[in-house]
């Protein structure tokens, strides 16, 4: 629905994040990314992150050389990972910055024109650290780590 229903008001209506020839692959990726990363327990989370790390070792995006909905779905969790999830949800076995392919992939996506404007880390941190009193009863918001997602990445090595 998001891929087509708003095309008349979209800035880039020709962008197809759900191309018909990749839909089966996108749906499969979305299934295990949702259950393992977006909504997974610690063991499943790190198994799924390891799987993504391996996929992204060989290709620029999850479906090869094409940016898809699966990448956007994964990005919204990865961009929050070190800043929020590692501390707030105690997902600190391994930080995003310790996954070279995932970290560079996140920086690559963040640097796509228009993508960084969708990320307001101050708001994200205030929301998470302030909306779960059972986890953070005093609403303390950590100062860091303030990751520079505009720093160079290595994903251009996959450019054709």
TrEMBL record:
Domain of life the protein comes from: Eukaryota
SUPFAM superfamilies: GST C-terminal domain-like
Pfam family, one: GST_C_2
Organism: Tagetes erecta
One Gene Ontology term of the molecular function aspect: glutathione transferase activity
Ranges where the GST C-terminal domain occurs: 1-128
Cellular component aspect of the GO annotation: cytoplasm
Entry protein name: GST C-terminal domain-containing protein
InterPro entries reported for this sequence: Glutathione-S-Trfase_C-like, Glutathione-S-Trfase_C_sf, GST_Omega-like_C, GST_Omega/GSH
């Amino acid at each position: 629905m998001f891929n087509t229903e708003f095309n008349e008001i979209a800035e880039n209506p020709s962008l197809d994040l759900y191309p018909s020839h990749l839909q089966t692959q996108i749906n499969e990726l979305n299934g295990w990314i949702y259950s393992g990363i977006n909504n997974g327990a610690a063991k499943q989370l790190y198994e799924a992150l390891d799987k993504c790390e391996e996929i992204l070792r060989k290709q620029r995006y999850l479906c090869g050389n094409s940016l898809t909905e699966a990448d956007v779905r994964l990005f919204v969790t990865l961009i929050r990972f070190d800043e929020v999830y590692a501390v707030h949800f105690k997902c600190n076995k391994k930080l995003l910055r310790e996954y070279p392919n995932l970290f560079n992939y996140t920086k690559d996506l963040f640097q796509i024109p228009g993508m960084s404007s969708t990320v307001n880390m101050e708001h994200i941190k205030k929301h998470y650290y302030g909306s779960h009193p059972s986890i953070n009863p005093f609403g303390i918001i950590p100062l860091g780590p303030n990751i520079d997602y505009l720093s160079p990445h290595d994903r251009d090595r996959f450019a054709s």
